[in-house]
Structures are given as structure tokens and as C-alpha cells.
Amino acid sequence: MTHKLLIRLVDAEYAITRLNIGTPLPEWLMGPGFWTVSSSREEMTLVCRAARIPPGVQSSGGWRCLRIEQHFSFEVPGVLASVLNPLTEAGVGIFANSTFSTDYVFIMGSDLDKAVAALKAHGHDITS
């Protein structure tokens, strides 16, 4: 199933950060904009606005955030795929995160124009 989506380009640069398991959540993580913590047996991954990350923390900066503006029930298949597939076909690397209500797709800022063009070509509306 193909979904035509309204996707918002969030006006901030983001970073993806790696911390060791068991590290207390840093005070700089929480603040304006999207932020999240994922934990596995290997690592903790934090995503937040890049400007909040202090020097010396292992991170990958330069990410831009695309937010799917519609809300779908969990049973609706293909929502995230309708964004990821065009980006994959365009050669754009992604880092995806989901919340209860929607999905966030992070792309490198250097791929932004290519990503927007690919999403528009697949019928999505992009706003900022």
C-alpha cells in the first residue's frame, strides 16, 4: 500500500550519540525538539539536537529530521516504508525512529536536496 504523506522538515540539526550501557542519562539530552533514547545489550543510542551535545561525546552530527505529520494506527502497513523506499532508491542513508503517534526519519544534511526530490517524486508533500 502506498501512502501519500505530509512530511515536515524540522528546522534543526540533529546528532546520533552512542553511550555505554549503564551510563546515566545526561542532562544535556532533554530539551526542545525531538529527543529519544534506545538501549540494547551493546549500547545506548541518544538522538537530540546537535547543539546540545558537548565536545568529546561519541556522536554523528549533521543529521536533518523529517517528521511524518499524519497519525496512523499501528495496524496500517507501509507508512514508514512509503518514506524509506524512495529514499533508498535515491541512495539516501537513513536513521529512523518511531514514537507512539508518528515516525521520524533522519538523513544527512548533505543528502537533503536529493531526499526532498525523491519524496516529492513519490507524491509526498514536504513542508518546513
Automatic annotation (TrEMBL):
What protein name is recorded for this chain?
Aspartate kinase
| Parts forming coiled coils | none
Superkingdom, taxonomy of origin: Bacteria
Q: Which Gene3D superfamilies match?
A: VC0802-like
| InterPro entries associated with the record | A9CJY8-like_N, ACT-like_dom_sf, CASTOR_ACT_dom, UCP008459
Q: Which residues form the CASTOR ACT domain?
A: 60-120
Q: Which residues form the A9CJY8-like N-terminal domain?
A: 13-54
